[in-house]
Amino acid sequence: DLRRDLAIASVRSTIVDVPTVRRHKLSSLSVTAQSYVIVEVKLANGVTGIGEAATLGGPRWSEESVESIKANIDTYLTPAIAGLPADRFELIGIQLDAAAKRNTAAKSAIETALMDAVGKTLGIPAALLLGGVVRDRVPVLWTLASGDPVQEVEEAERKIAARLHNTFKVKIGAEAPATDLARLRHLAMALEGRATLIVDANQAWDETTALRCLPVLAELGVTLVEQPVPAWDLDGLARLRRRSSVPLMADECVFSAHDMLAVAQRGVADVVSLKLVKHGGLLNTRKVAAVAEAAGIGLYGGCLLESSIGASAHLQAFAGLRSLAWGCEHFGPQILTDDLVTEPLRFEDFHIHLPSGPGIGVTLDQDKLRRYARA
Ligand code: MUC
Ligand code: MG
């Protein structure tokens, strides 16, 4: 019968390192290759599903690294779900949470692979398992993060000319505030009237620095400021929000639905960045989104520079949201020198398109997996 066919037969995890087209610099880290754990779950019926756990600069962006993700999947998470019917997503979530605290990126890669395998078995997209599609494309921005304003204007010009991106997220916080503000002024002037700018400080500032810089960002026309202060400083962010004319976005301070509730109750943010690696899967991402929706907080489709595998998993989760007013940032597939799937995702007219196939909608290229697998 179908249920026995859907039994989880095996889980394989592979660390890959894929070079990026240029150095990507955040406040506290810098990468020239992106590291993922690719998860392949095989069902008793012979169908394989895939998922991806992204990281940024080892355990620097959050506490998970590809090494810890692979170790915890192989040692603790796989034994907890072996043999279970793959379509019991919520039950499997309970088992995964009992087997390991947090480890949300690892759990997300597993849940993605399960939804992919079940979707591929039934011939339906993962988005249908989550309630169906509201949109089949999402506005997608590009992130400027070389730190060199001349290079960044050139890069932005190329993206605008190709009609790929006209909203840009500028990564700040690696340099002194004055240097970052000068860089932003350069970008704002060069791209005036042709692009929208948002910024992400990745927790680099303290409250007083942010208080000093926010009016300048407003004057430069920046439309959204992401995680200016440390993730722990919810009260500081709430105070800044009351004094800022620019909307503020929560990123590193919202992992769980409980975090989202605290952010909502304390008036911490106007917008939240949704990411599978933070929330621990597609189902949990929708739960975090529901808490935000209930509080009138806007939704933004965040990323951790995922390949087409992780990006399409996010699109499956984003496709059914009633509103995704702030668009998304799944430019990841475009910043890699190569992709891991047989057919790349479609970027067109400033949007990224939901792939139409079953499961998460993309197919793992085994040659690429072998090529980029860590020895
Ligand atoms: C983050 O903090 O938002 C997303 C885009 C990017 O360049 O870095 C990530 C992580
Ligand atoms: Mg961020």
The CA-CA distance between the termini, in Å, is 40 Å
Which strands sit side by side, in order, in the main sheet?
5-6-7-8-9-10-11
Spatial shape: globular
The H/E string reads HEEEHHHHEEHEHEHEHEHEHHEHHEEH
Task: Indicate the proportion of strand residues.
Answer: 15-25%
Bound molecules: [(2S)-5-oxo-2,5-dihydrofuran-2-yl]acetic acid, magnesium ion
What is the count of DSSP helices, taking H or I runs of 4+ residues? 15
User: Largest sheet at a glance?
Assistant: 7 strands, parallel
Helix content: 40-55%
| Oligomeric form | single chain
Ranges with pLDDT <50 over ≥5 residues? none
Average pLDDT across residues? 98
Question: What labels describe this entry?
Answer:
19% strand; 3-stranded antiparallel β-sheet; 7-stranded parallel β-sheet; 375 residues; binds [(2S)-5-oxo-2,5-dihydrofuran-2-yl]acetic acid; alpha/beta
Notes on the protein architecture:
The chain has 375 residues and is α/β, with parallel strands linked by helices. 41% of the residues lie in helices and 19% in strands. The strands form 3 sheets. Strands 5-6-7-8-9-10-11 form a 7-stranded parallel sheet. β5, α6 (149-161) and β6 (167-171) form a beta-alpha-beta unit. α2 (66-81) packs across α3 and α12 packs across α13 (308-318). It starts with a helix and ends with a helix. Residues 26, 143, 145, 171, 200, 202, 251, 302-305, 329 line the site of [(2S)-5-oxo-2,5-dihydrofuran-2-yl]acetic acid.
